[in-house]
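Example record

Each entry pairs one chain with its bound ligand, BIS(adenosine)-5'-pentaphosphate.
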Amino acid sequence: MRLLFVGAPAVGKGTQAKRLAEALGVPHISTGDMLRAAASQPTPLGQKIKKYIDLGSLVPDELMMSLIEERFRQADVKKGYILDGFPRTTAQAMGLDLLLARLGQSISRVLLFECPDAVIMERIIERRSCPKCGAPYHLRWQRPKVDGICDRDGTPLVQRTDDTRTKVFHRLDQYRSETAAVIPHYDRRGLVRRVNADQPPDDVYRDVEAAVAKE
Ligand code: AP5
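Structure tokens for the complex follow.
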């Protein structure tokens, strides 16, 4: 199964993608996690990417396409994948179409996560993340077993540099002006399933499972 997870920042895409990827036994490909890993390197490319992320701005399309093409060369994607946070612009969606056509693949379904802005704001400001594995936590709703420590690998949790109130407004603006345009691109093909992300995580997951179930 090849799935795309689309939605505003902090709507809960990563939380659900990690859980479903484990259940399906497919890789969770988060472009945000890939970019943060690259940005932690003291290379010119890493530092260039870091500037975009710190501003809460989109990384240029050409760079994103080469990152995805490289990821798709790895063997694990043969069994399927969840692409989380990509494509985020119409140019990326068209680039992905070309790449998939070359590989003889197609997207099974696109899950669009929806949630009011006020809820997104609360989720972002109180999010903490593992800088090693990318696992998301929330100071109230998804607390780690030990305060400040990742349940999976024991790494101290951090607050992302783009998880501030002003940057959230900018990220939401970009979502509306750039990313929302990819939805009609897939809607025309009947691939989009809307998921109410404004519910407790287990309830969202139940809807995610229903959205990917065979029809
Ligand atoms: P990215 O990491 O993809 O950020 P995002 O899309 O803004 O999404 P988030 O990771 O912020 O949120 P999420 O929806 O995964 O929510 P989460 O599950 O963590 O991208 C970061 C940056 O990289 C971009 O700004 C850009 O610069 C760059 N980038 C990435 N991809 C790019 C691309 N394709 N093109 C160009 N640039 C790109 O949940 C959020 C919080 O809520 C957590 O605390 C979680 O614990 C909590 N939570 C989750 N679900 C629930 C629930 N149901 N109830 C209560 N709390 C919940």
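The pocket of BIS(adenosine)-5'-pentaphosphate is lined by residues 7, 9-15, 31-32, 35, 52-53, 56-59, 64, 85-86, 88, 92, 123, 127, 136-138, 141-142, 162, 171, 200-201, 204 (CB under 6 Å).
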